[in-house]
Structure formats: C-alpha cells, structure tokens
C-alpha cells in the first residue's frame, strides 16, 4: 500500500521541536476530515516544549456532534453484522499501519504533548499491541447454550452496545483513544471520540488509520472541543455508552449527564497512589521503581505512586540515591533521543504544580531537589513549560502535597516504622487507582497486595501495566475497567433467547 503522509509534516527526517505545522481539519466523520463549521470560537493549541501555537482548536457544536454520531451509527449497522474474524482482520491491518508509521505518529504526539520521544514511541507501540490484543479477542466473543426440559433450550448472544463515546485526557492522547476504541470496535460497536482540547492532533490520525485499514466510514470518528462538546455527547440520545478518562470532578458530571439517558459509563479518574518500600527490599530496584512511579510523562500519569512510604531504617540511603538520580535526569528538548523528561502540558499546569511545591514548603516539606521552573539553554525552548523534577522530604500525611493529585514531577517521601501502620496510612485516601510495594518477603508482598484498596498493586516494580490485565480504580478513582479480557463486559450486552421445542402449556 502506498504511503502518504498522515498529516502535513515538514520533511520527516528533519522534524524537530518548533517545526510542526498542523493545518488540516482535526474533526473526522463519514470517513474524512471535516472543517469546523464556525471558526469564531477558535482557541490556540500549544507545543509545550516551545510555547508556540501549533494549531487552532474549534469546538464542535450541536449540529456537528449530531453528524458525527449519525455517521457512527450508520457504520455500526454494518460493522456489528461482521463476524469477529472479519473485524479482527481490519483491526490487525490498523495495528500494522500504526507500527509502520510509529515514529511519525510519535513525533506528532511529542509536539502536541511535550513528553519525550522515547516515551511517545513506547505509547504508540502499546497502542498497536492493544489493537492486536483486542483483534485476537474479537473472534472469541460467544454466548452460552443451556439445555432445558423437553428438548427446549436457551442461549445468550453477546451483542454490542451501539455508538460508544470516548472522552480522553491530555496525558496519553493517542494511547487513550486506542484503549477505548480497540475493545469497543472488537465488540462490534462504533465510536465517537473527543480528545482533550489541549491535545487534539493525534486522535484524528487514528481515525485515518482505521479508514485506511478498511473499516467502514464512520466507524471511528473524532469531534473536537471541551466541556460543551463533551456535554452534547453525554446527552445525545443515540449514544449508548460513555467511557471517560479525566479528573474526578468532570467524571462526576459525565456520570450525572449520562444517567439522564441511562447510559453505561466507565470512569478512569485520578489517583494519589502509595508506593511502600520496606527495608528488606532490593534498594537499587526500589529507587528505580520510585523514579518510574513518579517521573514518566513529567509526572502527569494518573496511576503514579506519588506517596512514597520508606521504612525509616533505609531512608538516608534511599533519599541519597533517589536525589542523585533525579538530578541526573536529562531535561529538555523532548524530540531528542537522549532526553528523559520534557515539558508539562501547559503554562497553567506548570504554574499549578509549582504552586503545590510552594505550599509543600510552607507546610514544612523540605525540597531535596528540583521544583523550579527550568529554562533549557536551547533558545527555541525558552517559552516551553519546563520544570525540574522534585523530591520532597519531611512530608506528613496531612500535607496538601500528600493528599492531592499534583499531576507533575513531584515525589513526596514519607517515613514509616511498621507494616500495620503503613498499610493504614497508605489506604487513607479517597483515591484508589494503584499501589506498589518493594520487599524481598514474598508473604509480605502478597499481604500488602491483598490489603491495598486500589485497582492495581505492583510488586517489586511500578507502572508496568500489562495490557492483558484490567486497569481501573477503586473508590473515587472510578469504576469499570479498561484493558484485559474483562473489558468485553463493558462494551457488550447479553441477550437471552429462550426456545420452546414442545407445545405451550397455558394456565389460561
Ligand atoms: N484513570 C485514568 O486512566 C486516567 C486519569 N486521568 C486523570 O485525568 C486528569 C487530567 O486530565 P484533564 O484532561 O485535565 O481532565 P479533565 O477532567 O479536565 O478533562 C478530561 C476530559 O473531559 C472533557 N470534559 C471537560 N468537562 C466536561 C464536561 N462537562 N462534559 C464532558 N466532558 C468534559 C475534557 O475536555 C477532556 O476531554 C487527572 O486528574 C488524571 O488523574 C488521566 C489519565 C488517565
């Protein structure tokens, strides 16, 4: 198949920070990019590494949302009639195209999100694997057959829901779109996806990929916009389900709106996850785990382990090593292979994170490193939203930095003495997305995993999240699951068919 550029890029090999130009329309339905109807309410979208405007974001209004949903519905009528094997073939082709164009998509993701190219490539690879995984599941979808008295029988049909809406956050723009689309499509649904208005650029590439792979026009659609567009999606009567990734306050609104139409919802919300490091751990691994738990995507990861509980005896060695490695993180141009930390998503997000560091200091925390705005030496990065990764010592459970989700590169370290004490403290949160434990004691590791009030527990690592396993929250971190086989339950409904083989015995 001849390759054509997915998006207007300057000569591909020369793409670097400050060069991407996005001119094409960012909406997609009926199998094509669609220009916004009313360009009056355009808002700038930034390249986080430079602060330069990458493109304009024009939110979709009622008529446009309606068109996208109708486009999805007409695709659903065809797609849902295909055998799982036929859907799988198209999905595998989509995954192949993503792999082929992985570097290109990753570079666009970096330009729009600010994360490093190394991480973006991993995200795009994960997206391709996710589509492959659900392509493998599509042909296995099946019902149950039950024999009844007198030769009668009953069976269940596992049927798709219809038009599903995905609403995404800005931290993993392409990956979130795929994590919602892949299971939805595998199960025979169609999707309308709304990215975060801060990262509108790569979801539309996914729409092009599905089209190129042979999906019916309208199977995966993209509408751009913020709260107003999201509201239109949640209330639309032709929408069967809303899968949401974002903050707790917005999640509550989405649930409330969806409840009016008795729509199913999946909620992937925020977190303030604990990472517990016992003195019998393999210290170097624990240090590396703490860094992976805090600094990926500039700390803007929902399942990050930002409350790091360290057993008192090993605190000095732990801090020395963690600070040494944090100071050594190469920070700067995210398009360069050697960079390990890029720019935060926006100026307001940067200011918010820096303000959290200030409050932490006022409440008695000690900044061991970082926590300041950072100006890389390269002049083109001067307007970028950079800060140095921060480690906070002397933290207490009642401090704001320990209680609230910061969503930036800030690790709060807290000492503990006993297992019983730390478990109680670790669970003392309204969130419950993830948790982690480092110990060489196998029994203790599983005891901790059992007690943690969280959707995941990582033993002797952190943020590994295999896509074959369910991902989601306890408590206010949400409900429903993404990834893994169980997600089929969230994108299908069961119909029971009862077949009478004899005569009707009537009481009347
Ligand atoms: N649990 C998970 O899987 C993940 C959770 N998150 C959470 O997301 C948050 C950061 O993302 P943000 O984009 O700032 O969250 P946000 O809640 O502000 O926005 C999320 C999405 O909801 C849309 N939205 C806003 N108001 C809406 C409304 N009234 N109706 C419908 N849609 C609306 C936004 O445009 C965006 O697409 C963090 O709290 C983070 O923990 C982020 C990534 C993964």
Automatic annotation (TrEMBL):
Family per record: Belongs to the aldehyde dehydrogenase family.
Organism: Alosa alosa (allis shad)
InterPro entries referenced in this protein's UniProt entry, alphabetically: Ald_DH/histidinol_DH, Ald_DH_C, Ald_DH_CS_CYS, Ald_DH_CS_GLU, Ald_DH_N, Aldehyde_DH_dom
Function description: Converts gamma-trimethylaminobutyraldehyde into gamma-butyrobetaine with high efficiency (in vitro). Can catalyze the irreversible oxidation of a broad range of aldehydes to the corresponding acids in an NAD-dependent reaction, but with low efficiency.
Protein name: Aldehyde dehydrogenase domain-containing protein
Major localization listed first in the record, in broad terms: cytoplasm
Assembly notes: Homotetramer.
Gene3D superfamilies: Aldehyde Dehydrogenase, Chain A, domain 1, Aldehyde Dehydrogenase, Chain A, domain 2
GO molecular function: 4-trimethylammoniobutyraldehyde dehydrogenase activity; aldehyde dehydrogenase (NAD+) activity
PANTHER family: ALDEHYDE DEHYDROGENASE-RELATED
Locations listed in the record: Cytoplasm, Cytosol
Domain Aldehyde dehydrogenase as annotated: residue spans: 41-497
PROSITE patterns per UniProt: ALDEHYDE_DEHYDR_CYS (PS00070), ALDEHYDE_DEHYDR_GLU (PS00687)
Active site: 268
Pfam family, one: Aldedh
């Amino acid at each position: 198949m001849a390759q054509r550029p997915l998006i207007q890029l300057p000569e591909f090999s020369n793409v670097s920070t400050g060069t991407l130009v996005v001119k094409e329309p960012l909406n997609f339905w009926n199998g094509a990019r669609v220009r916004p109807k009313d360009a009056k309410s355009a808002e700038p979208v930034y390249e986080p590494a430079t602060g330069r405007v990458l493109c304009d974001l024009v939110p979709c209004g009622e008529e446009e949302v309606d068109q996208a949903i109708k486009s999805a519905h007409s695709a659903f009528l065809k797609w849902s009639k295909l055998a799982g094997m036929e859907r799988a073939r198209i999905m595998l082709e989509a995954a192949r195209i993503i792999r082929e164009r992985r570097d290109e998509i990753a570079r666009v993701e970096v330009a729009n999100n600010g994360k490093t190219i190394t991480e973006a490539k991993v995200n795009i690879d994960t997206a391709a694997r996710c589509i492959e995984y659900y392509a493998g599941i599509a042909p296995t979808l099946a019902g149950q057959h039950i024999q009844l008295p007198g030769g009668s029988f009953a069976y269940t049909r596992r049927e798709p829901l219809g038009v599903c809406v995905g609403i995404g956050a800005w931290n993993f723009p392409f990956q979130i779109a795929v994590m919602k689309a892949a299971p939805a499509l595998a199960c025979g649904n169609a999707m309308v996806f709304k990215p975060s208005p801060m990262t509108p650029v790569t979801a539309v590439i996914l729409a092009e990929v599905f089209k190129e792979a042979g999906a019916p026009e309208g199977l995966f659609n993209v509408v751009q916009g913020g709260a107003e567009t999201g509201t239109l999606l949640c209330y639309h009567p032709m929408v069967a389900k809303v899968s949401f990734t974002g903050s707790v306050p917005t999640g509550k609104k989405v649930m409330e709106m969806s409840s009016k139409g008795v729509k199913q919802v999946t909620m992937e919300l925020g977190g303030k996850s604990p990472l517990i490091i016992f003195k019998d751990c393999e210290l170097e691994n624990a240090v590396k785990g703490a860094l992976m738990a805090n600094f990926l995507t500039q700390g803007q990861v929902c399942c990050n382990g930002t409350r790091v509980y360290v057993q008192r005896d090993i605190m000095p060695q732990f801090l020395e090593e963690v600070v040494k490695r944090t100071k050594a993180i190469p920070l700067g141009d995210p398009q360069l292979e050697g960079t390990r930390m890029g720019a935060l998503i926006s100026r307001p997000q940067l200011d918010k994170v820096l303000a959290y560091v200030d409050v932490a200091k006022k409440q008695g925390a000690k900044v061991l490193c970082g926590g300041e705005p950072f100006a890389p030496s390269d002049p083109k990065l001067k307007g970028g939203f950079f800060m140095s990764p921060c480690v906070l010592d002397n933290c207490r459970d009642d401090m704001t930095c320990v209680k609230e989700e910061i969503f930036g590169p800030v690790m709060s370290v807290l000492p503990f003495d006993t297992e019983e004490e730390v478990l109680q403290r670790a669970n003392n949160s309204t969130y419950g997305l993830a948790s982690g434990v480092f110990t060489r004691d196998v029994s203790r590791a599983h005891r901790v995993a059992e007690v943690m009030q969280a959707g995941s527990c990582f033993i002797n690592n952190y943020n590994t999240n295999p896509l074959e396993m369910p991902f989601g929250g306890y408590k206010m971190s949400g409900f429903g699951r993404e990834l893994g086989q169980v997600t089929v339950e969230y994108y299908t409904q069961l119909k029971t068919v009862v077949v009478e083989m004899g005569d009707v015995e009537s009481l009347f």
